[in-house]
From TrEMBL:
TM region(s), chain numbering: none
Classification via PANTHER family: GLUCONOKINASE, SUGAR KINASE
Naturally occurring in which organism (per UniProt): Halalkalibacter kiskunsagensis
Keyword list, A-Z: Kinase, Transferase
Protein name: Gluconokinase
Domain Carbohydrate kinase FGGY N-terminal: 6-249
The protein's enzyme class: transferase
E.C. numbers: 2.7.1.12
InterPro entries for the chain: ATPase_NBD, Carb_kinase_FGGY, FGGY_C, FGGY_Carb_Kinase, FGGY_N
Family: Belongs to the FGGY kinase family.
Length: 513
């Protein structure tokens, strides 16, 4: 019998599917990533093709296995991480009759606002999901009120991970965390919430069966197994959502351990042994297992801010990167490093895509504040990077109110490749920041859940022994003082500009029609 030495984590993200093959000690053996497009058929609509995502996921797994050149029988299992809040309408024949509507979709702004002003508090306290257009609950209410045809014809309403499981194993099941992020799931009873179902106009029969993250699916058909380059009997563990798995994958699982992740969007999260919500409704609280919850807050505006800065201000760097076969982001980061911390008193509110925590305001808009003739491109780039971290710091203040002061901060995601961004993070927070050697924390968290499901590791927290760490960033006290002074202004700007954001957002929506 062939010894099993490897485990594969599949991470279904906002813009790509990544498959990462690990040894049991957390070392990456091979990885493969396949992107898929995002479509905007109408203003504020954000959609994807479920079949394109499935093809990317299959190609990601196949590519990682082939790159590794290992025997497919050496793989313990595949375990799945997925972005939250997606929604697909399925017909009686188990075919999608709508696109996958993503977390970034804003079509249900009016519905979310109305629910929040009426019975939203009651729903939030039961589900732990802030009332916002990101949540499938809000999208379903929009569908019902607009007579969206796929909604009227739908037999099931599922997420993208559920779609893949259904396609590969002919089952409608959903892990607790993905269910919890829908706004339709009660985090106290771990059942579908009747009040939310009534608001959405659906029944629990139209949703998948909620199951633990350790649930195993097995029995690939021969054709699919060949496409994956896996054995037909390879176990697939359902896993969880990318948030808790990112925490797990960097070891942020004990009280006081805080994970900060920035990819396209961003989040700050902390695990808890009981659900905690309050009437301010500023953070999420999702069930992971029946004795573990994750609390925190997401920002819509993470790496997407840097991408926007590159597109708008980085024409020269993009051209130079093409000539040198390098990275425009590296060139812009080097430029930003020439500006002093605080960007010479320039602040950037990074609300380019509306904002989730702690404001949950789809009308929020990005703003440079404090521009003078002395400011140059390097100041604007640096202020943009700093603005993303200020945003996470503001969420962290809210999280601290419910979960206590962070003891250890761990950083993961694409931004953890940037030493400048990490130094800004540790200087603004004023605490040491630990960075794992691998940036694929969600995939490693998923892989560990798989090993746990198969009984190959003793506990979830035991992962701390199998996370190769890279650098630790130490805060500069002088910089921290500068940032704290600027943050006092930053935190007041949203509230000062909020009525103007709403007026401008209304004008912008009219212009797009």
């Amino acid at each position: 019998m062939t010894a099993k030495n490897y485990v594969l984590g599949l991470d279904i993200g906002t813009t790509s599917a990544k498959a990462v093959l690990f040894q049991k000690n957390g070392l990456v053996i091979a990885e493969n990533e396949n992107a898929y497009p995002v479509y905007h058929p109408n203003p504020s609509w954000v959609e994807q093709d479920p079949y394109e995502i499935e093809r990317a996921a299959v190609a990601a797994i196949s590519g990682a296995v082939q790159k590794s050149q290992i025997n497919k029988n050496e793989i313990y299992c595949v375990s799945i991480s997925s972005a939250m809040h997606s929604l697909i309408c399925m017909d009686q024949n188990d075919e999608p009759i709508s696109p996958s509507i993503t977390w970034a979709d804003g079509r249900s702004v009016d519905q979310a606002s109305r629910v929040k002003d009426t019975f939203g508090k009651s729903l939030y306290l039961k589900t732990g999901t802030p009332i916002h257009p990101m949540a499938p609950l809000s999208k379903l209410i929009w569908m019902r009120e607009t007579n969206y045809q796929p909604y009227l014809q739908s037999a099931k309403f599922i997420s993208i991970k559920e779609f893949l499981i259904q396609r590969w194993f002919d089952k409608y099941i959903v892990d607790y965390a993905i269910a919890s992020a829908s706004g339709l799931f009660n985090i106290h009873t771990f059942e579908w919430e009747a009040e939310a179902l009534f608001a959405a106009g659906i029944t629990s029969d139209q949703l998948s069966e909620p199951v633990p993250s350790t649930t195993i699916c097995q029995g690939l058909n021969k054709e699919l197994a060949e496409q994956f380059h896996l054995s037909q009997d390879t176990p697939f563990v359902i896993g969880s959502s990318d948030g808790p798995l990112a925490n797990l994958g960097i070891g942020a699982i004990d009280p006081g351990d805080v994970a900060i992740t920035i990819g396209t969007s961003g989040a700050i999260r902390q695990m808890a042994s009981k659900p905690q919500t309050d009437e301010l409704q500023e953070i999420f609280c999702y069930g992971v297992t029946k004795d573990l919850w994750i609390m925190g807050g997401p920002t819509n505006n993470g790496g997407i801010v840097f991408q926007w800065l590159k597109d708008v201000l980085g024409e020269a760097e993009v051209q130079k990167a093409l000539e040198l076969n390098g990275s425009a982001y590296d060139l812009l980061t080097s430029l930003a490093q020439t500006a002093k911390p605080g960007a010479n008193g320039l602040l950037f509110l990074p609300f380019l895509n509306g904002e989730r925590a702690p404001y949950w305001d789809a009308n929020a808009r990005g703003s440079f504040i404090g521009l003078t003739l002395s400011h140059k491109k390097e100041h604007m780039i640096r202020a943009g990077l700093e603005g993303v971290i200020y945003s996470l710091y503001s969420i962290g203040e809210t999280l601290e109110r419910l979960a206590g002061q962070p003891a250890t901060i761990f950083a993961s995601g694409g931004f953890a490749r940037s030493s400048l961004w990490l130094q800004i993070l540790t200087d603004i927070f004023g605490q040491e920041v630990r960075v794992p050697a691998s940036h694929q924390s969600s995939a490693w968290g998923a892989a560990w859940f798989g090993l746990y499901a198969l009984g190959e590791v003793p506990s979830l927290s035991a992962i701390k022994e199998s996370i190769p760490m890279n650098n630790t960033y130490i805060p500069n006290k002088t910089n921290h003082v500068i940032y704290q002074e600027l943050y006092q202004t930053y935190r007041e700007l949203y509230f000062a500009l909020k009525p103007h954001f709403k007026a401008l957002a209304t004008i912008q929506r009219k212009e797009k029609k």
